[in-house]
Records
---
Amino acid sequence: MTEISLTTPLREEVVRKLRVGDLVAVTGTVVTARDRAHAYLAGGDVRSELPFDLAGGVIYHCGPIARRTPAGLTVVSAGPTTSARMAPYEAAVVERYGVRALIGKGGLPEEFLDTFARLGCVYLSAYGGCGALYARHIRRVRQIFKEEEFGSPEAFWVLEVERFPAIVSMDARGGSRHREVWERSREALRDLPPA
């Protein structure tokens, strides 16, 4: 399968061409945001307070672990956080700030397919347990925003990434790998003999 290179900021027409199952490699800026950061973004339009732009951007559900070196911060692990935790805020964040892709673990509820179709956004799955692998694709930490207020894992980390690997699991055309797996699993369970 061919890998699709994506460079931030992402253009809507590029995102709308992506399909469930596409392997992608993201290069450019990725901003981490977990529960606290999402609540902050969804609470009102705080664009003027942000030291970064999320338009055409990629949000990674992640709380990186880094070590301080004489050269600055080096991310040693950057595994994905379960995305369903961000679901109460995510639609507002995507619409308000023009986010084009979300990276996380486990997918989002089915109703997000309508949001993605309407706004031109996709969900990219990253694999749990691969934090050290993903850290290798982070070239540098450009800044950390709200670290003192939110704490390090919940702060916004603005990362410069190169060929960060992920797979499209919810696209802007109503496709969902999570739904496909659920339906296949349900069929397989029906075929099992009674206990």
Note: Residues 26 and 114 are 24 Å apart (CA to CA).
---
Amino acid sequence: MAQEAAGVARLAAVLADETRATMLLALLDGRAFTAGELARRAGVAPSTASEHLDRLLAAGLLTERRQGRHRYVQLTDGATAHLVEDLVSHAGGAGVRPPTTLRAASARAALARGRTCYDHLAGRLGVDITDAMTAAGLLSQRTGFSVTDEGCAWLIDRVGVDPAALRATRRPLARPCLDWTERRTHLGGAAGAALCARLLAARWVERIGSGRAVRLTPAGANALADLLGRPIR
């Protein structure tokens, strides 16, 4: 018990820094960033950013690879992203300062409408798709959270997801992820990741700028309404 408690305390100490928290949030879209890009996101000097990244790497929260003179880092895995998103959800109440500028308010509103949570869809868009899949019998939330046989066939035959993306992974096929803006569940796991990748590839969903925010395109709205039998916001 003492060893586990010490491990929790060490992890909490790593997370208890606003600069490192900003870097982790920037990496929640699943992409790899350079140290320089994260320094600009966090508003710190490159040398300071490198020190913070070393702490995150040592804690096992990030992995890195080098390409030429550039150092790229990203979240270690989906479980790490899930941890960060859960912390955001728990901190999403009175402890979070409201935006003080129109730009910040617009950015927060865009994230609430739709965003990526590591490699799956979140925000109102992610929750709405999850609700529609559940209503159509493609997801079951009666006893746990799972993709039904009909849901697997729908993903492969109707949406065009590669079957290999749903198999042979260590992560669960479906995982409930608490949405920190909607306070409800959206679809994570291998199925959530495969669905997000397919919607982005088909340009049914597109990124807004360089951050995590995404939006449903007109073509995507029509396609998903047809596939799910109800409009998606």
Note: The longest strand covers residues 62-67.
---
Amino acid sequence: MPEVPCLKRSLLTLLFTLMGLPLSDGAMALDSDRDQPIQIVADVAIRDELAGETRYEGNVVLTQGSLVITADTLSIRHNTDEADKIVATGKPATLVQQPTPDQAPVDASALRIEYIRSQDLVRLLEDARIAQDGSTLSGRQIDYLVSQRTVRAAGIPGAEGTDRVEVVIPPENLRGNASNG
């Protein structure tokens, strides 16, 4: 997949938002977000100590600063004190966050959003879509391998029977990127 600067920044913002980790190149969520408390509101919360899972069900809304995740279910699996796997599912599950005060919010959605710590992987599955400031990246699956800083998008089956990825960049975003180098 060719790298698109505005989408790369948006995708990196989204993916690091899911993990709560800063980026070394400065593309991150609002600095104040990680210092804010996490609030989760749901119809039901279930903590299963033996399974090592906390599950939130029904109209789940997770907020932390400018980050808002909505889902039908959100599960957090952990073998230690830290989360090993976080899964948000919905029709679709959504994630919205303000990257910086001067940037438009990143809006991502998929039927399933996963963060797998052991693989250093963030995955948007089924009807995956990321949008910011009119630019979009969509496909069946969008993966980000954090340690390798690699993005891979798998397409949606097209009329010819082949998988296709779609990237849309408005002309004004192209002009802005050209002037920024």
Note: The helical segments are 5-19, 171-180.
